[in-house]
Amino acid sequence: MLPVVALVGRPNVGKSTLFNVLTRSRDALVADMPGVTRDRHYGICRTNEERPFVVVDTGGLSGIDDGLDGLTARQVRLAIEEAQVLVFVVDARDGLLPQDRTILDELRRSGKPIIAAVNKTDGLDEETALAEFAVFGIAATLPLSAAHNRGTEDLVDMLLPLLPAEPDEAEEQVEDGSIRVAIVGRPNAGKSTLINRLLGEDRLIVSDVAGTTRDPIRVPLERDGKRYTLIDTAGVRRKARVEEAVEKFSVIKTLQSIAAAQVVVIMIDARENLADQDLTLIGHAMEEGRALVIAVNKWDGLDAYQREQCQRALDRRLVFVDWAKQVYISALHGSGLRELMRAVMRAHASATKELNSSDLTRTLEKAYESYQPPLVRGHAPKLRFAHPGGSNPPTVVIHGSRTKHIAPAYRRYLENFFRKRYKLEGTPIRIEFREGENPYAGKKNVLTEAQQRKRQRMIREMKKRK
After folding, report:
1. What is the pTM of this model?
2. Name one GO molecular function term (predicted).
3. What is the predicted pLDDT for the residue at 326?
């Protein structure tokens, strides 16, 4: 396992900005307001290729132990417990505050090496900024500006001697071969609760307050011999209701997580039934071509009549994705999770199934014989052969003539025919038509002298008959 370094400090001191610089990513959400980060966010720093290490971005310690601040503080303490080195981030512009002393006392009680990173020193006298924090008595204190990537290399050089010995060769292959599963839905649908239940621990903050999750959090999971990377995302509301800039960025991160995933699990609150926003999220997943599973959560709180009405509504409104498996679960109590993970496995297997050209062509011939496409200007489109065009989603490329005029209904017929033939469940299928160029297009046949004389004789004969 790679060594772990935790970034700890007050809210809005620049921990997420420093995290993005060290991991060379934009995974952590950054905004000029306190309390944006709440869950633990993991990434790998490869600035020194010989000694990579895991960086943990944490929420700010506000000194309040109630509500969301208390849940955030618990996540920070879990990060402190699992880290080998702690980076105490302070704000040079705000100066030394009593809250910094309280946090430092808690870090020292952990007994782990501490580095004091004095952030936001751009435009300030570094010696003066460091002098104010000299009362900490931390030998490893350095100035930096995370926003401008100044001083971060010195921070890495200071970290490396404090890290444990060389890691195992298993190293950074943490997510290799794992199935990336994005859990998306509206606020308060139970996404974080589901991941905590699958993990068997309180890995993510769960609260009745809508919009608790802001950053997309990636969590590794091994279940029944299979490895997954679960991506918890922020709840997506209707665009008209999104006003704060932080929530807008959270929605963008959620859509990016859908694009990065291999399987998308749409969480639906059974008590509120299917909303238009759920259909919008399903549409985004289909546009990205991602395998899809519909998870109807909070099923345990409904009586028999409510369940029947909910199932009818889902069947009626989800007819355009009838290939997606519907699973009824309770994330809080854990019912239906086995069926959910099986549906995820089947959807991933279908999305990544390998197809071959000869079998696709034979299937296309059977589909064409069973039902031919409608005539185009008196001529039937010809479908000659097919070959695979990619996976995730499965793509079938069909070559023929007059394919530009094939009706959408016939395209859907071919999708359903291929789906039934190859038993593809939980994944969309893309059909691409290719039409070969006519080699005689634009060319005129020039008649010889003999052909011209023959043509003239035929014209005269026709006139005589009239």
Report:
1. 0.74
2. GTP binding
3. 93
Please tell me the distance from the alpha carbon of residue 22 to that of residue 13, in angstroms, as a whole number: 16
**pLDDT score of 396:** 92
pLDDT-wise least confident of 254-258, 334-338, 447-451, 452-456: 254-258
2-160 shares its CATH topology with 355-433: no
Residue 276 annotated as part of some ligand binding site: no
Instruction: Give the Cβ contact number of residue 109 at 10 Å.
Output: 9
| Residue 363 marked in a binding site | no
Every domain of the chain and the residues it spans: 2-160, 177-350, 355-433
59 is in an annotated binding site: yes
Residue 389 is labelled as binding a ligand = no
For residue 146, say whether it is annotated as part of any ligand binding site: no
Average per-residue pLDDT for the chain: 84
Token representation of residue 329: 């679960």
151 annotated as ligand-binding: no
83 annotated among ligand-binding-site residues: no
Q: What is the pLDDT of residues 349-358, one digit of tens each?
A: 999 999 899 9
CATH 3.40.50.300 given to domain 177-350: yes
- Cα atoms found within 13 Å of the Cα of residue 30, Cβ hemisphere only: 16
Annotated binding residue 322: no
The answer regarding whether domain 2-160 maps to CATH 3.40.50.300 reads yes
pLDDT at 366: 93
Give, in degrees to the nearest 5, the angle at Cα 218 between 81 and 201. 50
Residue range 63-122, pLDDT digits in tens: 777 777 787 888 888 888 888 999 999 988 888 888 888 889 888 988 889 999 999 888
Q: Is 392 annotated as a binding residue?
A: no
The answer to whether 301 is annotated as binding is: no
- Token pair, residue 288, equals 């990205």
Annotated ligand binding at 34? The verdict is no
Is 94 annotated for ligand binding? no
How many C-beta neighbours within 10 Å does residue 426 have?
Answer: 24
Strand-strand pairing, 263-269 and 217-223: unpaired
Check the annotation: does 362 bind a ligand: no
